[in-house]
Amino acid sequence: MSYGSTIKVPFGPQHPALKEPEHFLFKIDGDIIVNVKPRIGYNHRGIEKAFERRTYIQNIYLAERICGICSDAHTTCYVQAIEDLLGVEAPPRARYIRVIVAELERIHSHSLWLGIAAHEIGFDTLFMHLWRDREAVMDILELISGNRVHYAMNTIGGVRRDIVSETIPKVIGSLDFLEKRTKYYMKVLRSEPTVLKRTVDIGVLKPEDAVELCAVGPTLRASGVKNDVRRDDPYAAYDEIPFNIVTDDGCDVFSRILVRCGEILESINMIRYALDHMPSGMLRVRVPMVVKPGEAVSRVEAPRGELIHYVKSNGSTRPERYKVRSPTLANIPALCKMLIGQHVADIPIILAGIDPCFACMDRLVFVDVKTNKKKALDFESFRKIVRKRHELL
Amino acid sequence: MRREDKIVAEIRERLKEKIITVEVPRERRIFAYIKLEALKESIKFLKDMGFKHLSTITGVDMEDGIELIYHLALDGSIELSLRLKVQKDDPRVPTITDIIPGAVLYEREVHDMFGVNFEGHPDLSPLILPEKWPRNIYPLRKKYALERLRNLIFKEEDIE
Amino acid sequence: MAIIVEAIKHLFKRPATLRYPFEKEAPPKGFRGRPIWDMHRCVGCGLCSRMCPSGAIEMIGRGHEARIKHYVDRCLFCGQCSESCPRNAIRLMNDFEHASYSRDSMIYEYKRES
Ligand code: SF4
Ligand code: SF4
Predict the structure, then answer these.
(1) How far is CA A96 from the centre of its chain?
(2) Paired sense of beta strands B117-119 and B92-94, if any
(3) Are A151 and A101 spatial neighbours (Cβ–Cβ below 8 Å)?
(4) Distance CA A258, CA A188 (A)
(5) Set of chain A residues whose Cβ sits within 8 Å of the Cβ of C53
(6) Which of A39, A199, A227, C35 allows an S-S link to A253, with CB 3.0 to 4.6 Å?
(7) Which chain B residues are closer than 8 Å to A330 by Cβ?
């Protein structure tokens, strides 16, 4: 059914899901989205330029601050690129510790996302419970690294801190708790009609489109494509730790939920294995301050998908060029594809479905193409529209 | 023969004199340097070979031009960096969005930051830079040191 | 339905949050808080100030007479300074409440007492 005219709906730059700004211009026909135009950059801090002005050691902490949620993924990627340039390799124990911290981070990121998804579909009880249990993994991360958010574990040539034997029982205890809780939440998510009604068959991304549009991470895996940098391009100790790649062929938001839940369970097992098989030995090798000219490409599977860093050095203490491509950017073309043909009310959950690293909706402006009148809507009134539509269902 | 060497041999055979250098610095990494006119052709046959995933496009400001590096991945494992050089004033490259639709945003990003024109791209409006950003100023070119950009931003705010 | 049972159960449980600032949880061992300088150990080499990623350390003078100014408002609590110090003069403390109304009160000065 067509209403004959399309209406443009700018969405953002403030946004509903996470706490970063992003702007989408939707063209809608009635209640159906016919076109999407993304506009990013509201949070552009010029980090690539800043990399060129800092020394290699200082840049570790800059890389960490690209993102607050996948801070460890960014530093791992950074130090690997520099290690590649220097021709050194982190000692085995350091590589295991990197895996443990990376997987803990994945658990924390995925449970954060699950909470947000629950909140987005108006299921705040689940959101509260999920975030309370997420504290368990935050506490272990703080215990291991000394900080809840910026772990500062990686350094060029290894890791900075050891995981001492006294903390291991506590880590194992928390993992058992998390495993129990995640299994319970999976049961809830599978049986709760609120979740099923809002997520099944919403935001469908067909496997061919996912590959064509270069989607990455859980978004790609939820479309049934078995692709994971940890297996395909192993780094750290991933080639020594057995794990399954979780996929689902539902291609919708619900599959994305299932894939992330499955990955939490997979990560818990990987950490258990890594703690058991962690070799003893050195934590880091000494590296020079000056890096010889060259270039390197480094890839890491961040919680949101493939993260790629490119570095070019010129033989001084600072890089010549540093390039970062975070997984969210890679998923935006795919996101635009999944939004087309959907209802306006489903925008928040589809947007949140790729686990974007931006966002926070504040207001919406509806523009009627004919009269060119703008109607600003705040978050609450938008929510009301959403709720009303779902009462009708 | 390693997988990497097989791919390198195939690239050499297909591109012949259009290729400048190819090297394999380590396992699962290939760097190929090609001539500008061979871009579309190479992306096409690389896609047929299985390099379906474009990780990103990097721009690098060199003294004698702008280097574009297309990072392509083979089923997620081998990362091939296809590099070519364009001249600095009025840089032009054909778009690859018709072959790999996922390149849309990466091309816009490079366009914003380096001023490279991707001919045939559906929409090259600013992606990252603000609408009021002055034309002909490309923040990631070496010429624009941070101090210069800072002053520029302050001036913009004064106008408002 | 499963979640309703869970929610009702929680009516009878202790709250998961603390009434901060009245109740506080001590940070775990190894917490990365504010760095402090032991000026009896410091030889004034300036390495900490050069390595600091955020420019939070200012050195005035060199050698034993050097004064060190630490700007907590810029500090990232990364601990790189304490890692780089050849004399182990920098230790990370446990405190995390640094908020203040003025920047001046966030500057800590260290000087060797003779
Ligand atoms: S902890 Fe880090 S940011 Fe703070 S003073 Fe030391 S080196 Fe600088
Ligand atoms: S690195 Fe250590 S010895 Fe050198 S100036 Fe800093 S505190 Fe003093």
Answers:
(1) 22
(2) parallel
(3) yes
(4) 12
(5) 54, 57-62
(6) A199
(7) 55-56, 102
C51 with A150: Cβ contact below 8 A:
no
CA distance A39 to chain C (A): 30
Instruction: Look up the pTM and report it.
Output: 0.89
Q: Are A299 and A229 in contact (CB under 8 A)?
A: yes
Digit-coded pLDDT (tens) for C54-100 = 989 999 988 888 899 999 999 989 889 998 999 999 999 888 888 88
Domain extent at residue B116 = 3-128
Give chain B's domain count: 1
**Ligand 1 binding residues, C-beta < 6 A:** C 35, 52-54, 56-57, 75-81
Contacts of B104 in chain A (CB under 8 A): 333
Q: Best of C13, C20, C52, C78 to disrupt the A interface by mutation (most A CBs within 10 Å)?
A: C78
Task: Say which DSSP state C55 is in.
Answer: -
pLDDT digits (tens, 9 = 90+) for B115-143: 888 888 888 888 877 777 777 778 888 87
Please report which residue ranges of A56-149 form alpha helices under DSSP H: 56-64, 71-86, 92-120, 124-145
The residue whose CA has the least distance to atom 2 of ligand 1 is C78
C51: CATH: 3.30.70.3270
State which residues form the domain around A336: 23-42+332-392
Q: From the CA of A159, how many Å to the nearest CA of chain C?
A: 12
Task: Say if residues A299 and A306 touch (Cβ distance below 8 Å).
Answer: yes
